[in-house]
Amino acid sequence: MCESMSCKNSWTRNYVMSAGRFPKPRACGCWAVFNFCRESSDHGPFNSWDRVPFLTDVATPGTPSLTPLYNEIYSNFFIANYESSMCVDNDDGSAYYKIHDNVCHGGGHKSDFAGHSKSTYNSLEIGPKRDACISVQPSLDNVREGYWNNTCLQLLPVQNATGQGPYATVNGCNGTTGAVQDPKALPVMHANTIYNAFGQAYVQCVQATPPFPRATMTLQEFQAQGYEGGTRVEKLPTVDSIIRLAKTTLGMP
Is residue 211 reached through a cis peptide bond, with omega within 30 degrees of 0 on the bond before it? Predict the structure, then answer.
């Protein structure tokens, strides 16, 4: 299923499963989405591109604008299995998404090729792609990416001498010292809970100028600069605790 020229569509209370490529509902409360990308790769159960803007007054009645209504993806249980790269794969300039209250196995928040205005919040993300709970390119102040009030479980084994791979890859720092140089390039991040085997989380911050060096620092070092307030890191919970988190996220008894 693919949407391109339509708007204000809603998919609710569906079980969507088992196809060679991927479905693509823009406003989705589908309940369960899994078993996609069985004949393809480099995308996920939800895949989007925003390469061509449309002039519309849907978001601003009576006043044509290139700014659309937000797309919402909420209350889903995603499994990014087979060759899926991640649950919600916002590719190529994708913008204006509210992604919330989902349980994603193989999740993570992504932004690339000038994507903007996307927020992931109130979600449970289990085993995100490359253990990166959020990986984004530089933001602009008025159209920033957002990642807050999420629970993210990093499940990969040791990747480097410090242990766990970075939970966040962001931009706007000195690539040698890790000092934040451009706060407006950072996404809005706060009040997240990170679980992994080590009980320590790392932030990788990229410098905006060539050759684009990147500094890796602990979550505490990043927070000491005044960012990522309220976020904490713990060791992995039990399976029963993860199941309870999933049920709570989806509003299940």
Answer: yes
